[in-house]
Specification:
- It contains 13 helices and 21 strands.
- By secondary structure, it is an alpha/beta fold.
- The strands form four sheets. Strands 9, 11, 14, 15, 16, 17, 18, 19, 20 and 21 form a ten-stranded mixed sheet that branches. The protein has a seven-stranded antiparallel sheet with strand order 1-7-4-5-6-3-2, with no helix packed on it. A two-stranded antiparallel sheet has the order 8-10.
- The protein starts with 6 loop residues before the first strand and ends with a helix.
Length: 458
């Protein structure tokens, strides 16, 4: 026997992507809604809040064309579910997992709640295995580990799109295990969508990638759903198919702007910079879906990308993201202006789980010592650059000049690499040892002697 779905005629208020329905009963939070326009078009939405017979509903496709008296609303009694399938790999889809690449709809193997399933913290397994991105500065200095959430902090005009596409094309885990990419773009322009698709196709990475695209012209509500749809598929691949999945989310700033716009439509009391006070918990509901589970072979790793407004790392978006995630990779405008790609600021970037994902049997025995020495030497170089700008380079000692030379070479040969250059961790460490040979051996105090004897070039 079919269940009769309650339907209401007329709404009391329309504001941005929000409608308010009065006189409802038996309606729950996060319930899916069908909104029928006066012309008969059916749009999806979800319940944001229910209080005293009043339901506040977000309409995914926007409220254009709705009327207060003739709009009909049908509550479906379940949360939003999206199809998941192995056939979604190699496809380009919208926020609701509907194909936009001109090919037939993938056959759904299951329908999953877009909000994911609660995960008992006790069931989590500590991330320990290395993911090679092919980018020296990340692999050596800010290593990515399976199950980690490691964001990239960028800014307007910096090449984060190039970097995101390069990581998606080059990332690998080694061995025979399945490794997939789930790529979600929020609020991007048409030319950016074409760029991402072309880069994946050129590198042959599209066949192992599921792309979810939300354009800037799409309704703001769809931007909120996009990362959750992508993560729902990623969870299916990681924890049901037991594959290793890397999820790249760009740009989380567009997501947070959408969150602020919806909050303003609801006339909520704003917090810092006008963002809603619950933005921390909302971001956490996305980022905390990364991880590993005891008894499951698969893993879900996240690399969210965000653009810092006005290059301000203390802005609420990077600030709250930093609290939730396990480190950050920060792109630097000064390095970019000097032609360095990727322009990663090593001194303020870190990966908190790096120590557990590198070393003998994972990358190489000397990896941790080399990374520590590179960091220390580059920090010393930057201090000497400040001193040289005051006193002049002629006033510096031979040892100090060696550090200045190391810093220049480190930026141009180690940090800097081509957009299509894929370096193995062995190649990266080889370049690192070549750079460290610029410095006197007695300065390499962070490296065990056995590694100096084995790898240092004299």
């Amino acid at each position: 026997m079919s269940i009769v779905k309650p339907e209401y005629l007329g709404v009391s208020r329309i504001s941005g992507p929000i409608i308010v329905v009065d006189g409802v009963s038996g309606v729950g939070f996060d319930e899916v809604v069908e909104v029928i326009t006066p012309s008969g078009e059916v749009r999806k939405g979800r319940v944001l809040e229910v209080e005293r017979g009043k339901a506040i509903v977000q309409v995914f496709e926007g409220t254009e064309g709705l009327s207060l008296s003739e709009t009909r609303v049908r509550f479906l009694g379940e949360p939003l579910k999206v199809p998941v399938s192995m056939d979604m790999l190699g496809r380009v889809m919208n926020s609701l997992a509907e194909p936009i690449d001109g090919n037939p709809k993938p056959i759904a193997e299951d329908l999953r709640d877009v909000n994911g399933s609660p995960l008992n913290p006790v069931a989590r397994e500590y991330p320990r295995d290395f993911i090679q991105t092919g980018i020296s500065v990340i692999d050596c200095m800010c290593s990515l580990v399976r199950g980690q959430k490691l964001p990239i902090f960028s800014a307007a005009g910096l090449p984060h799109n190039l970097l995101a596409a390069q990581i998606a094309r080059q990332a690998e885990i080694g061995g025979e295990e399945d490794f997939y990419i789930v790529f979600a773009a929020m609020g991007i322009k048409h030319d950016e969508a074409v760029f991402f698709r072309r880069r994946f196709e050129e590198g042959g990475a599209l066949k192992r990638t599921a792309m979810f695209i939300n354009l800037a012209e799409d309704p703001v509500m769809e931007r909120i759903i996009t990362p959750r749809t992508a993560l729902t598929l990623a969870e299916y691949l990681a924890f049901e198919q037991e594959a290793h999945v890397l999820v790249i989310l760009t740009d989380m700033t567009s997501y947070c702007e959408a969150l602020r716009e919806i909050s303003a439509s609801l006339e909520e009391v704003p917090s810092r910079k006008g963002y809603p006070g619950y933005m921390y918990s909302d971001l956490a509901s996305i980022y905390e879906r990364a991880g590993r589970i005891h008894g499951k072979n698969g893993s879900l790793t996240q690399m969210p990308i965000l653009t810092m407004p006005n290059d301000d790392i203390t802005h609420p978006i990077p600030d709250l993201t930093g609290y939730i995630t396990e480190g950050q990779i920060v792109l630097d405008r000064e390095l970019y202006n000097r032609g360095v790609y990727p322009p990663v600021n090593v001194l303020i970037s870190l990966s908190r789980l790096m120590k557990d994902g590198i070393g003998k049997g994972k990358t190489r025995e000397d990896h941790a010592d080399v990374a520590s020495q590179l960091y220390a030497a580059y920090a010393e170089c930057n201090e000497l650059r400040s001193l040289a700008s005051i006193m002049g380079e002629e006033a510096l000692s031979q040892r100090d000049r060696a550090y200045l030379r190391f810093g220049d070479e480190f930026e141009m040969r180690f940090i800097n690499q081509g957009v299509d250059e894929d370096r193995s961790i062995e190649k990266t460490l080889e370049i690192a040892w070549d750079l460290l040979s610029i410095l006197p051996r007695e300065e390499l105090t962070r490296i065990h002697r056995e590694y100096l004897d084995k790898y240092l070039r004299t």
